[in-house]
Design goal:
The structure holds 2 protein chains of 2 kinds.
Chain A (H helix, E strand, L loop, with lengths): L1 H30 L5 H16 L3 H23 L8 H39 L2 H7 L4 H39 L4 H11 L2 H28 L5 H31 L2
Helix pairs in contact in A: 1-6, 2-6, 3-4, 3-6, 4-6, 4-7, 4-8, 4-9, 6-8, 8-9
Chain B lengths: L7 E12 L2 E12 L3 E5 L6 H8 L7 E6 L2 E2 L5 H8 L2 E4 L11 H12 L4 H14 L15 H12 L6 E5 L7 H18 L2 E5 L3 H7 L2 E6 L2 E6 L1 H5 L4 H8 L15 H5 L5
Parallel strand pairs in B: 3-8, 3-9, 6-7, 7-8
Antiparallel strand pairs in B: 1-2, 1-4, 4-5, 9-10
The chains are: A mainly alpha, B alpha/beta.
Bound molecules: adenosine-5'-triphosphate and magnesium ion.
Protein backbone atom coordinates (compact mmCIF):
# COMPACT_ATOMS: atom_id res chain seq x y z
CA UNK A 1 0.00 0.00 0.00
CA UNK A 2 2.53 2.56 1.19
CA UNK A 3 5.04 1.00 -1.16
CA UNK A 4 2.61 1.57 -4.00
CA UNK A 5 2.22 5.15 -3.00
CA UNK A 6 5.97 5.68 -2.98
CA UNK A 7 6.19 3.97 -6.29
CA UNK A 8 3.61 6.19 -7.91
CA UNK A 9 5.14 9.33 -6.43
CA UNK A 10 8.51 8.15 -7.68
CA UNK A 11 7.13 7.51 -11.12
CA UNK A 12 5.49 10.91 -11.24
CA UNK A 13 8.74 12.61 -10.24
CA UNK A 14 10.66 10.52 -12.73
CA UNK A 15 8.18 11.41 -15.47
CA UNK A 16 8.53 15.07 -14.64
CA UNK A 17 12.30 14.91 -14.92
CA UNK A 18 12.12 12.85 -18.09
CA UNK A 19 9.81 15.53 -19.47
CA UNK A 20 12.22 18.30 -18.57
CA UNK A 21 15.02 16.26 -20.12
CA UNK A 22 13.12 15.79 -23.34
CA UNK A 23 12.25 19.46 -23.39
CA UNK A 24 15.89 20.46 -23.00
CA UNK A 25 17.01 18.12 -25.73
CA UNK A 26 14.38 19.60 -28.00
CA UNK A 27 15.50 23.11 -27.14
CA UNK A 28 19.14 22.35 -27.79
CA UNK A 29 18.30 20.58 -31.01
CA UNK A 30 16.40 23.62 -32.17
CA UNK A 31 18.87 26.25 -31.14
CA UNK A 32 22.30 24.90 -31.64
CA UNK A 33 21.93 23.51 -35.10
CA UNK A 34 23.89 25.31 -37.75
CA UNK A 35 22.08 28.60 -38.16
CA UNK A 36 21.28 29.69 -41.67
CA UNK A 37 20.82 33.43 -41.62
CA UNK A 38 19.68 33.77 -45.21
CA UNK A 39 16.68 31.54 -44.52
CA UNK A 40 16.38 31.93 -40.79
CA UNK A 41 16.26 35.70 -40.56
CA UNK A 42 13.01 36.30 -42.48
CA UNK A 43 11.34 33.61 -40.38
CA UNK A 44 12.61 35.31 -37.23
CA UNK A 45 11.31 38.68 -38.38
CA UNK A 46 7.91 37.23 -39.14
CA UNK A 47 7.71 35.70 -35.68
CA UNK A 48 8.85 38.94 -34.05
CA UNK A 49 5.84 40.49 -35.72
CA UNK A 50 3.45 37.75 -34.59
CA UNK A 51 4.81 37.30 -31.10
CA UNK A 52 6.01 40.80 -30.32
CA UNK A 53 4.31 43.46 -32.38
CA UNK A 54 0.91 41.88 -32.00
CA UNK A 55 1.36 41.83 -28.22
CA UNK A 56 2.11 45.55 -28.10
CA UNK A 57 -1.45 46.74 -27.58
CA UNK A 58 -2.17 44.62 -24.53
CA UNK A 59 1.24 45.42 -23.06
CA UNK A 60 0.86 49.16 -23.56
CA UNK A 61 -2.69 49.37 -22.27
CA UNK A 62 -1.88 47.24 -19.23
CA UNK A 63 1.27 49.25 -18.53
CA UNK A 64 -0.63 52.51 -18.65
CA UNK A 65 -3.36 51.37 -16.28
CA UNK A 66 -1.04 49.66 -13.85
CA UNK A 67 1.13 52.78 -13.71
CA UNK A 68 -1.88 54.99 -13.03
CA UNK A 69 -3.32 52.72 -10.35
CA UNK A 70 0.10 52.44 -8.73
CA UNK A 71 0.40 56.21 -8.53
CA UNK A 72 -3.09 56.62 -7.16
CA UNK A 73 -2.66 53.97 -4.49
CA UNK A 74 0.84 55.13 -3.62
CA UNK A 75 -0.30 58.74 -3.29
CA UNK A 76 -3.07 57.96 -0.80
CA UNK A 77 -0.54 56.21 1.46
CA UNK A 78 2.38 58.59 0.99
CA UNK A 79 0.39 61.79 1.40
CA UNK A 80 -0.46 60.88 5.01
CA UNK A 81 3.23 61.10 5.84
CA UNK A 82 3.80 64.11 3.66
CA UNK A 83 6.03 61.96 1.52
CA UNK A 84 4.14 62.33 -1.73
CA UNK A 85 7.33 63.53 -3.43
CA UNK A 86 8.59 59.93 -3.20
CA UNK A 87 5.84 58.86 -5.55
CA UNK A 88 8.25 59.03 -8.49
CA UNK A 89 10.76 56.47 -7.19
CA UNK A 90 7.98 54.32 -5.79
CA UNK A 91 6.30 54.02 -9.18
CA UNK A 92 9.58 53.71 -11.04
CA UNK A 93 11.10 51.07 -8.79
CA UNK A 94 8.00 48.92 -8.56
CA UNK A 95 7.65 48.89 -12.30
CA UNK A 96 11.27 48.38 -13.27
CA UNK A 97 12.09 45.80 -10.62
CA UNK A 98 8.87 43.81 -10.39
CA UNK A 99 5.76 44.69 -12.28
CA UNK A 100 7.35 45.30 -15.66
CA UNK A 101 9.00 41.90 -16.02
CA UNK A 102 6.41 39.91 -14.09
CA UNK A 103 3.20 41.30 -15.56
CA UNK A 104 4.74 41.25 -19.03
CA UNK A 105 5.65 37.60 -18.45
CA UNK A 106 2.11 36.76 -17.39
CA UNK A 107 0.51 38.66 -20.25
CA UNK A 108 2.99 37.19 -22.69
CA UNK A 109 2.16 33.67 -21.51
CA UNK A 110 -1.53 34.34 -22.01
CA UNK A 111 -1.31 36.25 -25.25
CA UNK A 112 1.64 34.81 -27.17
CA UNK A 113 2.46 31.58 -25.31
CA UNK A 114 -1.00 30.10 -25.71
CA UNK A 115 -1.02 31.07 -29.39
CA UNK A 116 2.35 29.40 -29.96
CA UNK A 117 1.21 26.19 -28.28
CA UNK A 118 -2.04 26.05 -30.21
CA UNK A 119 -0.38 26.83 -33.51
CA UNK A 120 2.32 24.19 -33.18
CA UNK A 121 -0.10 21.65 -31.73
CA UNK A 122 -2.39 22.15 -34.70
CA UNK A 123 0.49 21.87 -37.13
CA UNK A 124 1.29 18.59 -35.48
CA UNK A 125 -2.25 17.25 -35.58
CA UNK A 126 -2.65 18.14 -39.26
CA UNK A 127 0.62 16.29 -40.00
CA UNK A 128 2.32 19.47 -41.19
CA UNK A 129 5.28 18.75 -38.93
CA UNK A 130 5.47 15.15 -40.15
CA UNK A 131 5.36 16.21 -43.76
CA UNK A 132 8.11 18.72 -43.10
CA UNK A 133 10.20 15.93 -41.61
CA UNK A 134 9.59 13.82 -44.67
CA UNK A 135 10.75 16.68 -46.86
CA UNK A 136 14.00 16.51 -44.93
CA UNK A 137 13.33 19.83 -43.25
CA UNK A 138 13.77 19.73 -39.51
CA UNK A 139 10.67 21.28 -37.92
CA UNK A 140 12.69 22.07 -34.81
CA UNK A 141 14.83 24.36 -36.86
CA UNK A 142 12.20 25.60 -39.28
CA UNK A 143 9.28 26.05 -36.88
CA UNK A 144 10.47 25.97 -33.28
CA UNK A 145 13.77 27.87 -33.42
CA UNK A 146 12.54 31.12 -35.00
CA UNK A 147 9.68 31.27 -32.53
CA UNK A 148 11.99 30.74 -29.60
CA UNK A 149 14.42 33.45 -30.65
CA UNK A 150 11.56 35.80 -31.39
CA UNK A 151 10.11 35.23 -27.91
CA UNK A 152 13.51 35.73 -26.32
CA UNK A 153 14.05 38.92 -28.29
CA UNK A 154 10.61 40.44 -27.80
CA UNK A 155 9.79 39.87 -24.18
CA UNK A 156 12.54 42.01 -22.62
CA UNK A 157 11.65 44.80 -25.03
CA UNK A 158 7.98 44.46 -24.16
CA UNK A 159 8.88 44.60 -20.46
CA UNK A 160 10.83 47.83 -21.02
CA UNK A 161 7.94 49.31 -22.96
CA UNK A 162 5.57 48.23 -20.21
CA UNK A 163 7.63 49.94 -17.52
CA UNK A 164 8.13 53.09 -19.58
CA UNK A 165 4.45 53.49 -20.25
CA UNK A 166 3.68 52.60 -16.65
CA UNK A 167 5.93 55.44 -15.45
CA UNK A 168 4.21 57.74 -17.89
CA UNK A 169 0.86 56.62 -16.43
CA UNK A 170 2.19 57.33 -12.96
CA UNK A 171 3.21 60.79 -14.13
CA UNK A 172 -0.25 61.40 -15.55
CA UNK A 173 -1.96 60.63 -12.27
CA UNK A 174 0.68 61.92 -9.87
CA UNK A 175 1.70 65.14 -11.59
CA UNK A 176 -1.08 66.06 -13.96
CA UNK A 177 -3.98 65.04 -11.80
CA UNK A 178 -2.92 65.00 -8.13
CA UNK A 179 -0.58 67.94 -8.55
CA UNK A 180 2.79 66.67 -7.35
CA UNK A 181 5.64 68.88 -8.47
CA UNK A 182 6.91 67.58 -11.80
CA UNK A 183 10.53 68.48 -11.02
CA UNK A 184 10.43 66.52 -7.75
CA UNK A 185 8.70 63.58 -9.40
CA UNK A 186 11.40 63.16 -12.02
CA UNK A 187 14.52 64.23 -10.13
CA UNK A 188 13.88 62.06 -7.07
CA UNK A 189 13.08 59.16 -9.36
CA UNK A 190 16.34 59.73 -11.18
CA UNK A 191 18.41 59.83 -8.03
CA UNK A 192 16.78 56.72 -6.55
CA UNK A 193 16.68 54.45 -9.59
CA UNK A 194 20.01 52.82 -10.29
CA UNK A 195 20.84 51.76 -13.81
CA UNK A 196 22.54 48.49 -12.88
CA UNK A 197 20.66 47.51 -9.73
CA UNK A 198 17.21 48.30 -10.94
CA UNK A 199 17.02 48.59 -14.69
CA UNK A 200 19.48 45.82 -15.59
CA UNK A 201 18.17 43.43 -12.97
CA UNK A 202 14.68 43.98 -14.32
CA UNK A 203 15.88 43.21 -17.81
CA UNK A 204 17.67 40.09 -16.61
CA UNK A 205 14.45 38.96 -14.97
CA UNK A 206 12.52 39.44 -18.15
CA UNK A 207 15.13 37.55 -20.17
CA UNK A 208 14.79 34.61 -17.78
CA UNK A 209 11.00 34.78 -18.01
CA UNK A 210 11.21 34.99 -21.77
CA UNK A 211 13.25 31.80 -21.98
CA UNK A 212 10.97 29.91 -19.62
CA UNK A 213 7.65 31.05 -21.06
CA UNK A 214 8.60 30.55 -24.70
CA UNK A 215 10.23 27.23 -23.95
CA UNK A 216 7.19 25.90 -22.11
CA UNK A 217 4.86 27.12 -24.87
CA UNK A 218 6.88 25.50 -27.64
CA UNK A 219 7.45 22.26 -25.77
CA UNK A 220 3.77 21.91 -24.91
CA UNK A 221 2.76 22.51 -28.49
CA UNK A 222 5.36 20.21 -29.98
CA UNK A 223 4.43 17.40 -27.61
CA UNK A 224 0.70 17.97 -27.55
CA UNK A 225 -1.53 14.97 -28.11
CA UNK A 226 -2.64 15.69 -31.66
CA UNK A 227 -6.36 15.96 -31.04
CA UNK A 228 -8.72 18.83 -30.25
CA UNK A 229 -8.71 17.72 -26.63
CA UNK A 230 -4.98 17.37 -26.47
CA UNK A 231 -4.36 20.79 -27.91
CA UNK A 232 -6.80 22.50 -25.62
CA UNK A 233 -5.14 20.82 -22.66
CA UNK A 234 -1.69 21.77 -23.91
CA UNK A 235 -2.76 25.39 -24.30
CA UNK A 236 -4.16 25.51 -20.78
CA UNK A 237 -1.01 23.84 -19.46
CA UNK A 238 1.12 26.45 -21.15
CA UNK A 239 -0.69 29.37 -19.55
CA UNK A 240 -0.87 27.78 -16.10
CA UNK A 241 2.65 26.40 -15.97
CA UNK A 242 4.28 29.41 -17.58
CA UNK A 243 2.50 31.79 -15.20
CA UNK A 244 3.43 29.77 -12.16
CA UNK A 245 6.99 29.49 -13.39
CA UNK A 246 7.19 33.26 -13.82
CA UNK A 247 5.90 33.91 -10.31
CA UNK A 248 8.10 31.25 -8.72
CA UNK A 249 11.23 32.33 -10.55
CA UNK A 250 10.48 35.94 -9.75
CA UNK A 251 10.66 35.16 -6.07
CA UNK A 252 13.94 33.29 -6.46
CA UNK A 253 15.48 36.01 -8.60
CA UNK A 254 14.28 38.73 -6.26
CA UNK A 255 15.93 36.98 -3.33
CA UNK A 256 19.21 36.85 -5.21
CA UNK A 257 19.06 40.35 -6.64
CA UNK A 258 17.53 42.43 -3.91
CA UNK A 259 17.43 40.09 -0.91
CA UNK A 260 20.95 40.60 0.42
CA UNK B 1 20.63 -8.47 -63.63
CA UNK B 2 24.20 -8.51 -62.29
CA UNK B 3 24.75 -8.61 -58.54
CA UNK B 4 26.47 -5.24 -58.34
CA UNK B 5 23.47 -3.18 -59.43
CA UNK B 6 20.96 -3.16 -56.63
CA UNK B 7 17.62 -4.18 -57.95
CA UNK B 8 15.52 -2.89 -55.13
CA UNK B 9 15.01 0.62 -53.91
CA UNK B 10 13.60 -0.45 -50.57
CA UNK B 11 14.11 -3.81 -48.90
CA UNK B 12 12.30 -4.70 -45.72
CA UNK B 13 13.45 -7.72 -43.81
CA UNK B 14 12.10 -9.44 -40.72
CA UNK B 15 10.34 -6.28 -39.68
CA UNK B 16 8.31 -6.30 -36.50
CA UNK B 17 6.44 -3.36 -35.08
CA UNK B 18 3.78 -2.97 -32.45
CA UNK B 19 1.71 -0.14 -31.06
CA UNK B 20 1.66 -0.70 -27.33
CA UNK B 21 0.68 -4.33 -26.89
CA UNK B 22 -0.92 -4.62 -30.29
CA UNK B 23 1.37 -6.07 -32.95
CA UNK B 24 1.01 -4.35 -36.31
CA UNK B 25 3.68 -6.34 -38.15
CA UNK B 26 5.47 -9.53 -37.25
CA UNK B 27 8.52 -10.53 -39.25
CA UNK B 28 7.33 -9.06 -42.50
CA UNK B 29 9.47 -9.13 -45.64
CA UNK B 30 8.87 -6.85 -48.61
CA UNK B 31 10.88 -5.57 -51.54
CA UNK B 32 10.19 -2.61 -53.74
CA UNK B 33 11.88 -2.87 -57.13
CA UNK B 34 13.69 0.14 -58.47
CA UNK B 35 11.92 2.18 -61.11
CA UNK B 36 8.65 0.32 -60.67
CA UNK B 37 5.26 1.05 -59.20
CA UNK B 38 4.54 -1.19 -56.26
CA UNK B 39 1.11 -1.13 -54.71
CA UNK B 40 0.19 -1.98 -51.14
CA UNK B 41 -3.37 -2.96 -50.44
CA UNK B 42 -4.99 -4.12 -47.29
CA UNK B 43 -7.92 -3.52 -45.00
CA UNK B 44 -8.28 -0.19 -43.26
CA UNK B 45 -6.36 0.08 -40.02
CA UNK B 46 -3.99 -2.72 -40.87
CA UNK B 47 -0.92 -0.51 -40.83
CA UNK B 48 -0.27 0.70 -44.36
CA UNK B 49 0.34 4.27 -43.32
CA UNK B 50 2.45 2.92 -40.49
CA UNK B 51 4.56 1.05 -43.01
CA UNK B 52 5.22 4.21 -45.00
CA UNK B 53 6.18 6.02 -41.81
CA UNK B 54 8.56 3.21 -40.97
CA UNK B 55 10.20 3.54 -44.36
CA UNK B 56 10.45 7.28 -43.85
CA UNK B 57 12.10 6.76 -40.48
CA UNK B 58 9.43 8.66 -38.57
CA UNK B 59 8.88 5.69 -36.30
CA UNK B 60 11.30 2.97 -35.37
CA UNK B 61 10.51 -0.73 -35.72
CA UNK B 62 10.92 -3.12 -32.79
CA UNK B 63 13.23 -5.24 -34.89
CA UNK B 64 14.20 -5.86 -38.47
CA UNK B 65 15.78 -3.79 -41.17
CA UNK B 66 14.54 -1.33 -43.76
CA UNK B 67 17.18 -0.68 -46.36
CA UNK B 68 16.72 2.29 -48.67
CA UNK B 69 19.46 2.82 -51.24
CA UNK B 70 22.01 1.09 -49.03
CA UNK B 71 21.04 2.82 -45.80
CA UNK B 72 19.42 0.89 -43.01
CA UNK B 73 16.85 3.50 -41.99
CA UNK B 74 16.22 2.49 -38.35
CA UNK B 75 19.91 2.69 -37.49
CA UNK B 76 20.56 6.13 -38.97
CA UNK B 77 21.32 9.10 -36.79
CA UNK B 78 19.19 12.19 -37.03
CA UNK B 79 21.51 14.05 -39.37
CA UNK B 80 22.04 11.17 -41.76
CA UNK B 81 18.33 10.42 -41.74
CA UNK B 82 17.53 13.93 -42.88
CA UNK B 83 20.09 13.57 -45.62
CA UNK B 84 18.59 10.30 -46.81
CA UNK B 85 15.09 11.76 -46.73
CA UNK B 86 16.04 14.26 -49.39
CA UNK B 87 15.73 11.37 -51.81
CA UNK B 88 12.25 10.43 -50.74
CA UNK B 89 8.90 12.06 -50.68
CA UNK B 90 5.55 11.20 -49.25
CA UNK B 91 2.01 12.16 -50.08
CA UNK B 92 0.20 12.13 -46.76
CA UNK B 93 -3.23 10.63 -46.42
CA UNK B 94 -4.51 13.95 -45.09
CA UNK B 95 -2.62 16.05 -47.61
CA UNK B 96 -0.94 17.97 -44.80
CA UNK B 97 -0.54 21.21 -46.72
CA UNK B 98 1.05 24.06 -44.79
CA UNK B 99 -1.97 26.10 -43.81
CA UNK B 100 -0.13 29.41 -43.56
CA UNK B 101 1.05 29.39 -47.18
CA UNK B 102 -0.64 29.59 -50.55
CA UNK B 103 -0.74 26.58 -52.86
CA UNK B 104 2.16 28.05 -54.82
CA UNK B 105 4.33 28.50 -51.73
CA UNK B 106 3.46 25.01 -50.55
CA UNK B 107 4.80 23.50 -53.73
CA UNK B 108 7.79 25.84 -53.75
CA UNK B 109 8.58 25.14 -50.11
CA UNK B 110 10.93 22.22 -50.47
CA UNK B 111 12.62 23.73 -53.54
CA UNK B 112 13.33 26.93 -51.65
CA UNK B 113 14.58 25.07 -48.61
CA UNK B 114 16.88 22.67 -50.39
CA UNK B 115 18.17 24.60 -53.38
CA UNK B 116 19.48 28.04 -54.12
CA UNK B 117 17.65 28.36 -57.41
CA UNK B 118 16.56 31.84 -58.49
CA UNK B 119 12.92 32.69 -58.01
CA UNK B 120 12.00 32.67 -61.72
CA UNK B 121 13.22 29.11 -62.16
CA UNK B 122 11.34 28.07 -59.04
CA UNK B 123 8.25 29.71 -60.52
CA UNK B 124 8.57 27.67 -63.68
CA UNK B 125 9.10 24.44 -61.75
CA UNK B 126 6.12 25.07 -59.52
CA UNK B 127 3.80 26.01 -62.37
CA UNK B 128 4.81 22.85 -64.24
CA UNK B 129 3.89 20.70 -61.26
CA UNK B 130 0.67 22.56 -60.65
CA UNK B 131 -0.27 22.24 -64.31
CA UNK B 132 0.30 18.50 -64.07
CA UNK B 133 -2.33 18.20 -61.34
CA UNK B 134 -4.67 20.75 -62.93
CA UNK B 135 -4.26 23.43 -60.28
CA UNK B 136 -2.23 26.09 -62.07
CA UNK B 137 -5.17 28.47 -61.76
CA UNK B 138 -5.48 27.81 -58.03
CA UNK B 139 -1.93 28.79 -57.18
CA UNK B 140 -2.86 31.81 -55.11
CA UNK B 141 -5.51 30.10 -53.04
CA UNK B 142 -4.85 29.24 -49.42
CA UNK B 143 -5.28 25.60 -48.35
CA UNK B 144 -8.53 26.32 -46.51
CA UNK B 145 -10.02 27.60 -49.76
CA UNK B 146 -9.49 24.25 -51.50
CA UNK B 147 -11.84 21.32 -51.68
CA UNK B 148 -10.69 17.99 -50.25
CA UNK B 149 -9.79 16.60 -53.65
CA UNK B 150 -7.99 19.78 -54.69
CA UNK B 151 -5.98 19.81 -51.48
CA UNK B 152 -4.81 16.27 -52.18
CA UNK B 153 -3.77 17.19 -55.69
CA UNK B 154 -1.92 20.24 -54.39
CA UNK B 155 -0.19 17.95 -51.91
CA UNK B 156 0.65 15.64 -54.78
CA UNK B 157 2.24 18.52 -56.68
CA UNK B 158 4.24 19.33 -53.57
CA UNK B 159 5.36 15.73 -53.15
CA UNK B 160 6.80 15.61 -56.66
CA UNK B 161 8.29 19.10 -56.54
CA UNK B 162 11.89 18.00 -56.19
CA UNK B 163 11.76 14.86 -58.34
CA UNK B 164 12.71 12.46 -55.56
CA UNK B 165 14.06 8.94 -56.03
CA UNK B 166 11.24 7.34 -54.09
CA UNK B 167 7.68 8.56 -53.74
CA UNK B 168 5.23 7.06 -51.32
CA UNK B 169 1.62 7.85 -52.05
CA UNK B 170 -0.79 7.28 -49.20
CA UNK B 171 -4.17 6.87 -50.86
CA UNK B 172 -3.67 9.29 -53.73
CA UNK B 173 -7.07 8.56 -55.26
CA UNK B 174 -9.26 9.12 -52.23
CA UNK B 175 -11.88 11.78 -52.82
CA UNK B 176 -11.19 12.30 -56.51
CA UNK B 177 -13.81 12.43 -59.24
CA UNK B 178 -13.36 9.97 -62.13
CA UNK B 179 -11.61 12.57 -64.28
CA UNK B 180 -9.02 13.68 -61.73
CA UNK B 181 -8.64 10.07 -60.72
CA UNK B 182 -7.70 9.19 -64.29
CA UNK B 183 -5.32 12.15 -64.40
CA UNK B 184 -3.61 11.13 -61.18
CA UNK B 185 -3.34 7.50 -62.22
CA UNK B 186 -1.64 8.55 -65.44
CA UNK B 187 0.51 11.09 -63.63
CA UNK B 188 1.87 8.51 -61.22
CA UNK B 189 2.64 6.12 -64.03
CA UNK B 190 4.16 8.81 -66.18
CA UNK B 191 6.36 10.21 -63.40
CA UNK B 192 7.51 6.74 -62.68
CA UNK B 193 8.40 5.96 -66.27
CA UNK B 194 9.88 9.27 -67.33
CA UNK B 195 11.94 9.99 -64.21
CA UNK B 196 12.76 6.40 -63.41
CA UNK B 197 11.74 6.84 -59.81
CA UNK B 198 10.34 4.20 -57.53
CA UNK B 199 6.74 4.54 -56.46
CA UNK B 200 4.90 2.94 -53.58
CA UNK B 201 1.16 3.39 -53.81
CA UNK B 202 -1.15 2.63 -50.94
CA UNK B 203 -4.68 2.41 -52.19
CA UNK B 204 -7.97 0.58 -51.95
CA UNK B 205 -9.06 1.31 -55.48
CA UNK B 206 -8.44 -2.12 -56.94
CA UNK B 207 -8.99 -1.37 -60.66
CA UNK B 208 -6.85 1.78 -60.60
CA UNK B 209 -4.08 0.07 -58.70
CA UNK B 210 -4.18 -2.92 -61.02
CA UNK B 211 -3.87 -0.64 -64.02
CA UNK B 212 -0.60 0.99 -62.97
CA UNK B 213 1.11 -1.34 -60.52
CA UNK B 214 3.98 -3.54 -61.62
CA UNK B 215 3.80 -5.47 -58.40
CA UNK B 216 1.24 -5.70 -55.63
CA UNK B 217 1.40 -6.61 -51.97
CA UNK B 218 -1.73 -7.37 -50.03
CA UNK B 219 -1.26 -7.19 -46.29
CA UNK B 220 -3.54 -8.30 -43.50
CA UNK B 221 -3.08 -9.95 -40.17
CA UNK B 222 0.39 -8.47 -39.57
CA UNK B 223 1.82 -10.11 -42.65
CA UNK B 224 1.82 -10.29 -46.41
CA UNK B 225 -1.09 -12.47 -47.50
CA UNK B 226 -0.61 -12.11 -51.20
CA UNK B 227 1.92 -10.72 -53.62
CA UNK B 228 2.64 -10.76 -57.30
CA UNK B 229 1.96 -8.91 -60.49
CA UNK B 230 -1.65 -7.81 -60.98
CA UNK B 231 -2.20 -10.68 -63.41
CA UNK B 232 -0.86 -13.22 -60.96
CA UNK B 233 -3.08 -11.87 -58.23
CA UNK B 234 -6.23 -12.03 -60.31
CA UNK B 235 -5.77 -15.75 -60.75
CA UNK B 236 -4.43 -16.25 -57.24
CA UNK B 237 -6.08 -19.24 -55.58
CA UNK B 238 -5.95 -17.91 -52.05
CA UNK B 239 -9.40 -17.10 -50.70
CA UNK B 240 -7.90 -14.23 -48.73
CA UNK B 241 -6.63 -12.56 -51.85
CA UNK B 242 -9.81 -13.16 -53.79
CA UNK B 243 -11.92 -11.74 -51.02
CA UNK B 244 -9.90 -8.57 -51.11
CA UNK B 245 -9.76 -8.21 -54.86
CA UNK B 246 -13.50 -8.63 -55.18
CA UNK B 247 -14.39 -6.63 -52.10
CA UNK B 248 -16.47 -9.22 -50.30
CA UNK B 249 -17.28 -8.34 -46.71
CA UNK B 250 -17.27 -11.93 -45.52
CA UNK B 251 -14.31 -14.16 -45.78
CA UNK B 252 -11.00 -14.90 -44.20
CA UNK B 253 -10.03 -11.20 -43.90
CA UNK B 254 -11.78 -9.72 -40.90
CA UNK B 255 -13.56 -6.47 -41.72
CA UNK B 256 -13.91 -5.52 -38.06
CA UNK B 257 -11.36 -4.19 -35.64
CA UNK B 258 -10.70 -6.95 -33.11
CA UNK B 259 -13.61 -7.02 -30.66
CA UNK B 260 -15.62 -9.38 -28.57
CA UNK B 261 -18.52 -11.23 -30.14
CA UNK B 262 -21.05 -8.77 -31.61
CA UNK B 263 -24.26 -10.46 -30.43
CA UNK B 264 -22.76 -11.18 -27.10
CA UNK B 265 -21.79 -7.53 -26.62
CA UNK B 266 -25.21 -6.23 -27.70
CA UNK B 267 -26.84 -8.48 -25.15
CA UNK B 268 -24.70 -6.94 -22.45
CA UNK B 269 -22.29 -9.82 -22.13
CA UNK B 270 -24.89 -12.59 -21.66
CA UNK B 271 -23.61 -15.68 -23.40
N1 LIG C 1 -0.30 7.20 -33.02
C1 LIG C 1 -0.84 5.99 -32.84
N2 LIG C 1 -0.89 5.47 -31.61
C2 LIG C 1 -1.42 4.24 -31.39
N3 LIG C 1 -1.93 3.47 -32.34
C3 LIG C 1 -1.90 3.93 -33.60
C4 LIG C 1 -1.36 5.21 -33.92
N4 LIG C 1 -1.46 5.40 -35.24
C5 LIG C 1 -2.04 4.29 -35.73
N5 LIG C 1 -2.30 3.41 -34.75
C6 LIG C 1 -2.90 2.08 -34.92
O1 LIG C 1 -2.12 1.40 -35.87
C7 LIG C 1 -2.97 0.71 -36.77
C8 LIG C 1 -2.49 0.96 -38.17
O2 LIG C 1 -2.73 2.31 -38.50
P1 LIG C 1 -2.49 2.87 -39.96
O3 LIG C 1 -2.79 4.32 -39.94
O4 LIG C 1 -1.15 2.46 -40.41
O5 LIG C 1 -3.61 2.09 -40.78
P2 LIG C 1 -3.87 2.10 -42.35
O6 LIG C 1 -3.61 0.72 -42.83
O7 LIG C 1 -3.14 3.21 -43.00
O8 LIG C 1 -5.43 2.34 -42.40
P3 LIG C 1 -6.28 3.22 -43.45
O9 LIG C 1 -6.40 2.41 -44.67
O10 LIG C 1 -7.59 3.37 -42.76
O11 LIG C 1 -5.55 4.50 -43.64
C9 LIG C 1 -4.38 1.19 -36.55
O12 LIG C 1 -5.16 0.09 -36.18
C10 LIG C 1 -4.31 2.18 -35.43
O13 LIG C 1 -5.22 1.82 -34.42
MG1 LIG D 1 -3.62 4.99 -43.77
Amino acid sequence: MILNMFQSVGEAVFDRFAGVGRASIMLFGALFGIPNFRKGFPLFVKQVYVVGVQSLTIIMVSGLFIGMVLALQGYTVLVDYGAEDSLGPMVGLSLLRELGPVVTGLLFAGRAGSALTAEIGLMKSTEQLSSMEMMAIDPLRRVVAPRFWAGLFCMPLLAIIFSTIGIFGGHLVGVEWLGIDAGNFWSIMQSKVDLVDDVFNGVIKSIVFAIVVTWIALYKGYNAIPTADGISKATTDTVVQASLAVLGLDFVLTVFMFGG
Amino acid sequence: MPESIPQYSVEIEQLSFSRGDRPIYTDINMRFPKGKVTAIMGPSGIGKTTLLRLIGGQIKPDSGSIVFRGHNIPTLGRKKLYQVRQDMSMLFQSGALFTDMSVFDNVAFAIREHTKLPEDIIRTMVLLKLEAVGLRGARDLMPHELSGGMARRAALARAIALDPKLIMYDEPFAGQDPISMGVIVRLIKQLNDSLGLTSIVVSHDVPEVMSIADYVYIIADQRVIGKGTPKELLINESPLVQQFMQGLPDGPVPFHYKAEDYHCELLGGIK
